[in-house]
Amino acid sequence: MSALLSGNAWLNPFLGALQAAQVELGSVAHALGIAGDSHGQPAWPWPKRLAVEVLLIDAGVARQLALALAATGGALLLAVAGLVWRGRRIALFAAAALAAWFAPWPDTSLWLTDAVPTSFQTTPFSVETIALGAAHYARECAACHGDTGRGDGPRAGTLVHWPPTVVGPLLGHRLDGELFWRVLHGMHARDGAQTMPGFEGRLSDAQTWAILDYLKVLAAGGGAQDGEGWPVPVALPALDVRCGDAPAVPLASWRAGQRVRAVAVDGRAPPLEDPRWQTLLLFRDGALPAPSEAARWAANGDASCVAVSPGAWTAFAGIAGVNAQAFAGSQLIADRDGWLRAEAKPGDPAWANAALLCTAADAGGERGGRGGRVSRGRSDPLTSLLLRIDAEPVRYVKGGYVH
Ligand code: HEC
After folding, report:
1. Boundaries of each Cytochrome c domain copy (predicted)?
2. What is the pLDDT of residues 257-308, one digit of tens each?
3. Tell me, what CATH number does 200's domain have?
4. At CA 49, angle to CA 45 and CA 53, rounded to 5?
5. How many domains does the structure of the chain reveal?
6. Which residues have C-beta within 8 Å of that of residue 389, sequence separation ≥ 6?
7. What CATH code is carried by the domain that includes residue 285?
8. Is the pTM here over 0.70, yes or no?
9. C-beta separation of 297 from 304 below 8 A
10. Around Cβ 371, how many Cβ atoms within 10 Å?
């Protein structure tokens, strides 16, 4: 058994299964009426949850937990066999008792952690919420956390605790639903003293979720500016897209498994459409092409799908870590699972010097996110970039999925 569990290839599927089982348990509890609602979504009814984000880092504990689960499962099977097979009942029961007794459960403090009712809640990340979150962040949070989220706001120096930077691994180590809870209820030091005020009553649930979406943009943009890559994986934000003169539809309705290339259109001429991806054209607010113009592009074989949600340009510029004024000509690629992965700067239409901003970690689940120049192989740079992105999918983000 332990030979099977050496190496880390098993870790991601194991943690994925644990996480899925935990979320499933939550929905069963809700369906049975054991758990009520909290902030408009099903509540997690227990004070503890599996610390999947810790297990991800400590493979030793994860391995021990897997063995303990296997031994306990084996004990249950032996006990059931004992019930069925009368002749061998005593031997089977004894074996079951032994297996249960020797199940090597690690100390619970190593694999359980405090939960809150909103632990497993999330909301969709969208262009609209990013814009809303930016406005509320500026008003409520920037004084302490700083305009760029690095914890250097004007009030930071006056606080007992320095606010942490979000431009780093922090958000990747936390469940969204727990950040939500902390923002609403505040944070406290061990001695009970408040370190961060709570915003319940001041911010609505929707506003709080929106600010958390904006924090992801600050994290991504800051990491890109530092040349470190995105410290957390960033999904393609939800938005409405209009292709040619067809009615606008949600981006999510595009065939799943499709790569998306977002292009901040410089001037009026869109690039050619390319079968390797679906192109999403970004225009500044107020500068959207008329549907008839986009229909002409489509007829020429040019890209003709335009992001029509207000704020799309600003949201993508923020994620790329580029000033919105200087964003024209930039491109971003999202992989087949909808994670944004790479960026090409203006003046690099062929992706010759593109940066992979979200790199996958090895199966051990170490946090990736270091930016990397894409090596120039024999094939063209864009093809090697796409191959690398496909070969290294984003896995496991915060007890949901970390890359
Ligand atoms: C009065 C200053 C202040 C304001 C205003 C403030 N924070 Fe904080 N924030 C802090 C401090 C200090 C900490 C660190 C607290 C600690 O570790 O105990 C913190 C921690 C955090 C964390 C990290 C939580 C974690 O799990 O480690 C997040 C996220 C956060 N704040 C978000 C926000 C958001 C969003 C707002 C605005 C709605 C906000 N903060 C407003 C001071 C502030």
Report:
1. 128-219
2. 899 999 999 887 898 998 899 999 999 998 999 999 999 999 999 999 999 9
3. 1.10.760.10
4. 145
5. 3
6. 333, 335, 341, 342, 356
7. 3.40.30
8. yes
9. yes
10. 18
Q: Which two tokens stand for residue 174?
A: 């936390």
Q: Which atom of ligand 1 is nearest to the CA of 160?
A: 12
Question: Residue 191 in contact with residue 203, Cβ under 8 Å?
Answer: no
Whole-number pLDDT of residue 381: 83
Do 149 and 106 share a domain, yes or no?
A: no
Cβ < 6 A, ligand 1 pocket: 140-141, 143-145, 155, 159, 161, 163-164, 174, 179, 182-183, 187, 189, 195-197, 199, 211
> Mind giving me the DSSP string for 14-28?
HHHHHHHHHHHHHHH
Residue that terminates a domain, selected from 92, 114, 136: 114
Residues 152 and 62 in one domain: no
Which residues form the domain of 164?
Answer: 127-225
Look at residue 6 and tell me if it is in a domain.
Answer: no
* Ligand 1 binding pocket mutation candidate from 187, 190, 398 (most atoms within 8 A of CB): 187
User: Is the predicted pLDDT of residue 197 greater than 90, yes or no?
Assistant: yes
Compute the distance between CA of residue 326 and CA of residue 317 in angstroms, rounded to an integer: 9
